[in-house]
Design brief:
Elements (H helix, E strand, L loop, with lengths): L1 H12 L18 E3 L6 E3 L3 E2 L8 H16 L4 E3 L7 H11 L7 E6 L4 H14 L5 E6 L5 H14 L2 E8 L5 H10 L4 E5 L11 H8 L2 E5 L6 H6 L16 H10 L4 E4 L6 H9 L15 H5 L2
Parallel strand pairs: 3-4, 4-5, 5-6, 6-7, 7-8, 8-9, 9-10
Antiparallel strand pairs: 1-2
Helix pairs in contact: 2-10, 6-7
């Protein structure tokens, strides 16, 4: 498995194309990509909060330099959820303390049934994250999706949310994800995508691109399985300038190399890992329009 996945990374990472409009702006600043529904540019590396932001007061203090460094390095998208324990509250506390609210793009989710329960859940999320309006509210795992999207369209018209979206983490739900993308106007899709989980390449990512839906990828390290495997292997030879100094950068750039992807949201509470991850948003990205002759074996590894 190590050989096959490592070979796939090398094959996908070596063909580096010139920066294009689809790949975002290439400069000393972090690469950005436009939200299709609005044209607003967002940095390609964000920050997930699952588990690592569910902390008490002492843990919250330890996260302060992580969020500060994230913003300093050009990061904007911070994704959370009411199902992540205290994560929303911690994001709200730290963004207020660091005076980052106006520079961050805050995203969270609703995961309940019934219109009123959904409204109450989203109201609580706004309060916990100390936000007058949410940048992105997503229906998590498509739970009561039609009901909540109806509410969110109303909230969007009222200016209570800027963008609306859907999420799922299970490959068995991809047909339902496709159905919603075809039938409901949404701005964002958040979905698992890594070299370890490539099912969305077949239909979901092309459909999102066709419908003008921005894509946020979570689990870009395959739940850390890929990092555990590849940590024992040397980095791939890269004579064309991908500028990757560590495996997390290789894996993040690989995911961002798909033109349907707007942003990856790796999860971390460690400053050194955050700094490594942010470097993946700089320099060139793999040109995924070029052939990847060694990818098929890895998909079944």
């Amino acid at each position: 498995m190590l050989r096959l996945i490592g070979g796939t990374v090398a094959a996908a990472s070596l063909p580096i194309g010139a920066a294009t409009a689809q790949s975002g702006r290439e400069s000393s600043a972090m690469l950005t990509r436009a939200i299709p529904s609005s044209g607003e540019e967002l940095p390609v590396i964000g920050l997930g909060t699952w588990q690592v932001f569910d902390v008490g007061a002492s843990g919250e203090a330890a996260l302060e330099p992580v969020l500060a460094e994230f913003a300093k390095n050009g990061g904007r998208i911070v994704d959370s959820s009411p199902m992540y324990g205290r994560a929303e509250e911690v994001v709200g506390d730290l963004s207020a303390k660091l005076k980052l609210r106006d520079s961050l793009f805050l995203a969270t989710k609703v995961w309940t049934r019934g219109k009123q329960a959904g409204i109450e859940s989203m109201e609580h999320s706004l309060a916990r994250m100390q936000a007058k309006r949410m940048d992105l509210m997503q229906v998590h795992n498509l739970v009561d999706v039609n009901t909540h999207l109806g509410t969110l369209r109303e909230w969007k018209q009222e200016g209570r949310v800027r963008y609306i979206g859907i999420t799922h983490y299970n490959a068995s739900a991809l047909p339902e994800v496709e159905r919603v993308l075809k039938s409901q106007p949404v701005d964002f899709l958040q979905i698992n995508y890594s070299m370890h989980e490539r099912e969305v390449e077949q239909r979901v990512l092309p459909l999102a691109q066709e419908k003008g839906v921005a894509v946020i990828i979570n689990r870009p390290f395959g739940g850390r399985d890929l990092l555990r495997l590849l940590g024992r292997a040397p980095l791939p030879n890269d004579p064309r300038g991908a500028e990757c100094a560590a495996w997390p950068q290789v894996l993040l750039k690989w995911g961002l190399g798909h033109h349907a992807v707007n942003c990856a949201i790796p999860v971390t509470n460690k400053l050194e890992h955050l700094i490594d991850n942010m470097k993946a948003g700089h320099g060139r990205l793999p040109d995924r329009d070029l052939p990847e002759p060694m990818t098929a074996p890895a998909a079944t590894a």
